[in-house]
Amino acid sequence: MNQKEKDMTHFPSKRSEKLEKYVIDELLKHSRYIFIQRVSRVQYGYCTHCNSRFRTSGDLKHNGKSECPNCKSDCRVKNHGMSRKYLRDHGTVVFYEKSQVNPDSAIIAQVFRVYRDYSGDYTKVQTEYVIVAKYLFESGNPGRATMYERWGGWQKANSVHSIESYPHCPIESIKEAVTGTPFYYSTWDQHEQPQRDYVKFFALYSKYPVIEILTKLGFKYFVGAKLFDGKTYSCINWRAKQLHDVLRLSKQDFQLVHKEQKLNPMQLRLFQLSRKDSAPPTIQEIQNFFTDSVGDVMNELNVVLKYSTLRKAMNYMQKQVQICDTYKTYFGLLIAWRDYIRDCETLEMDLSHSLILFPKNLHEEHQRTMKLVKTTSDERSRAKMLKRAETLQKYKFEDQEFVVIPAETTEELIEEGKRLEHCVARYADRHAEGKTTILFVRRKNNPNSPYYTIELQKNAIKQARGFKNASMTPDVQKFVQQFENTKLKRKRKEVAAI
Ligand SMILES: [Zn+2]
Q: CA-CA-CA-CA torsion for 377, 378, 379, 384, nearest 10 degrees?
């Protein structure tokens, strides 16, 4: 038996009566109709819920509401003679049960799409059930969570997920399924579920049974964050067995954190990260410093803490905010500090040096590094342009009247665009990177003055533009033709020869 066949043995072959009851009484409760028909002036009704025929009071109206005198259902009234082509009700339900194989340790859930179709004979309508997904949750340490979806046959899904955003799921079915299994203690009913089917929760629990203790000890936040893509700040080691290991702390530190109970996730993370420092801050110091009003600064702090201890960073932040008018908050300060550190990295400055990592006046020093970074990057692009120009010397060409020369600097390209009033300057980066090639056509008697601009791509002329995007004059066209024949066509032959 392969894994899929084994997994399938956990599912019951028969539909549960409780499921059917839920579908009729809750999910499709709105799907109850009284069809009315007059026979020699007397109005009769037919209830689709209890399948009884009765004489009405005589005044039921099409699309009105009425109670069935037999089963007391609230029904919608429909005319016997009206078209029922589209009269079809449906719903989706996720239904939990115990595993057929390991009822003490595994639970299953199945997603049913249910229909009632009145387009045919309304006295013979049956509720139809189609199973579209199956979940198997096996407890253990770790356990296993598997989902199968119906795509032709049953296909294993990559991850356990809800089949729709708001499926119906009778909570009673979960309660019954988990009773007598480890899932009973999983704290499933303590976590708000955006999706009402709990499948993501049980999948997480199967994988990481530790979420039970985490929840019970007041760290419920992390379970919710893990389930629904919130921030866990990497606080939790989900696979650890011992609780203090789960919280990445020593036993003593875990006791402290547990006693306090008031740390928010970021504070907890900072506490964890600073434990091995010399003179680490206490829980109270972290709480008093990184209050809620400081905001979420974890990303910025992560950059800082690559080089500094938390204690030193806190001291520095405190001083800078006092001496500098620019940064009114720790948040603003940290963003600037992070940017400054990144500048230093770019400039390959030695951040292990405390005068560099903790500049006396962060604002001033940051202004300086920003300028340096910009100059450096300008220098780099200038070098790139020149290197490119070197490889383009082969395109130099002239006759009696005109010359072709390659662009050598960004400034030249900008000037060319300005004087000819076209947009060649926009091609500067692509030119520097070799994605396109810009050449200038100049008059021999006035070689510094822009005249026509050529763009080459794949060794062929893509465009040639003059003043305000003018096309070539016959003279220029003749020259460019010659250039093409001499420099481009020959080269193509060379390429072909290779
Ligand atoms: Zn009835």
A: 90
- Separation of CA 83 and ligand 1 centre (Å): 22
Look-up of token digits 């009673």: 172
Tell me which residue of 392, 393, 396 sits closest to 486, measured CA to CA: 396
pLDDT attached to residue 386 = 86
**pLDDT beneath 50: ranges in the chain:** 496-498
Ligand 1 centroid–CA 82 distance in Å is: 20
**In whole angstroms, what is the distance from residue 382 CA to residue 364 CA?**
27
pLDDT at 37: 95
Going from the Cα of 44 to the center of ligand 1, the distance in angstroms, rounded, reads 13
Q: Is the ipTM beyond the 0.95 threshold?
A: yes
Distance 66 CA to ligand 1 centre (A): 10
From the CA of 125, how far away is ligand 1's center (Å)? 14
Tell me how far the alpha carbon of residue 117 lies from the centroid of ligand 1, in angstroms.
18
Per-residue pLDDT tens digits for 134-144? 999 999 878 99
